[in-house]
Amino acid sequence: MLWRIFLTFLKIGAFTIGGGYAMIPLIKREVCSRHGWITEDDFLDGLAAAQSCPGPIAVNISIYTGYHVRGKLGMLMALLGTILPSTVSIIIIAMLFRQYTDQALVKRAFTALNPAVVALIAVPLIQMAQKSGLVWKNAWFPLSVAILVGVLNVSPVYLILLTIVYAVYEAHK
Amino acid sequence: MILLQMLITFFKIGLFSFGGGYAILAMIRQEVVISNAWITEAEFMQVVAISQMTPGPIAINAATFIGYQKAGIIGSLICTFGVILPSLIIMLIITVSYLKLKKLPWFQQIFRRLRLLSVGLIAAALIMIMGNAVQDWYSIGIFTVCFVATWRFKLNPFTMLISAAVFGMLFGSG
């Protein structure tokens, strides 16, 4: 069983390119429909928790599912399966990258890759803004965060702590 | 000593990264480019591009890559461990008590506010890299095409980045 958990999450980790959000549908299909390890309701609760908590979403949801299926050991197996493909592939790339980073071809590739990465971040920004309950009245908040962190280089840590304190104060008002 | 510092830094990144991959980028850049100066702006762009072309979550990929550049395989393992450790601790607590917690008003309010905050953090990441990456007509053109292709035509990030890389090799001036 532990081995099966590990292999399932290894597959999930290996075949999802493009970050955490891309992994969620695959995780759901594997653990709910295919293996029936967890009910859909339980999975959605876990997903909500995974999105609310710090850390990569895919890591959080695999910890949650692994724990649900087989306790702490299941949790470790799921976690290991999820991160192993990315760790191994990045180490290999990093090893090769050092030798090729100065080559003209790699440099030329990055002249186009850099603006493409900007587009890559701009798209989820719009999608997240639509889902986050953003309206004209509260737009000042993400806007000031963007300026403080993006222009003035304030660490997000202080803003996150302030936000948490303020939210608790609001709830108790 | 640098290993310990890397562990602490990536623990901090893991602990304060809310809202998934792209919101984490602002936090990673703040720590590794500005506070510690472990990598340059240009290398940060490379990390982001490579992370999106390889399997797995961005935070893990970035931690592994930066760790390797600073201190080899040991470094990459330490950074990866550091970034997932907060998840492990917090998710373990939350998994056990989430159903009770999510009914509490202050708990709900925190996450309503943090969702808005992560929109701001993604925008911050965008502002930070925009100046370096989009400077002339060539890069403005590539940005526009990639943006429309991903947003309007739902092209997946992997295909988009590979196409951009090939385009750059053929037509870029390096």
SSE topology:
The complex is a heterodimer of chains A (173) and B (174).
Chain A: H1 2-14, H2 20-34, H3 40-52, H4 57-100, H5 104-131, H6 140-150, H7 156-172
Chain B: H1 2-15, H2 21-35, H3 41-53, H4 58-101, H5 105-133, H6 137-151, H7 157-171
Helix pairs in contact in B: 1-2, 1-4, 2-4, 2-5, 3-4
Number of strands of chain B: 0
Terminal-residue CA separation of chain B = 37 Å
Tell the overall outline of chain B: globular
Q: Spans of chain A of 5+ residues with little confidence (pLDDT < 50)?
A: none
Q: What fraction of residues of chain A sit in β-strands?
A: under 5%
Largest contact between chains: A-B, 102 and 107 residues
**Which regions of chain B are unreliable across 5 or more consecutive residues at pLDDT < 50?**
none
Largest sheet of chain B: none
Topology pattern of chain B, helix = H, strand = E: HHHHHHH
> Could you tell me the number of beta strands of chain A?
0
Would you kindly provide a brief summary of this structure?
The complex is a heterodimer of chains A (173) and B (174). Chain A is mainly alpha-helical.
Describe the model.
The complex is a heterodimer of chains A (173) and B (174). By secondary structure, chain A is mostly helical. Chain A has helices at 2-14, 20-34, 40-52, 57-100, 104-131, 140-150, 156-172. The longest helix of chain A is centred in the middle third of the chain and has 44 residues, at 57-100. Chain A starts with a helix and ends with a helix. The relative contact order of chain A is 0.08. Chain B has one domain. The radius of gyration of chain B is 18 Å and the shape is globular. The mean pLDDT of chain B is 86. The interface between A and B is large, with 102 and 107 residues.
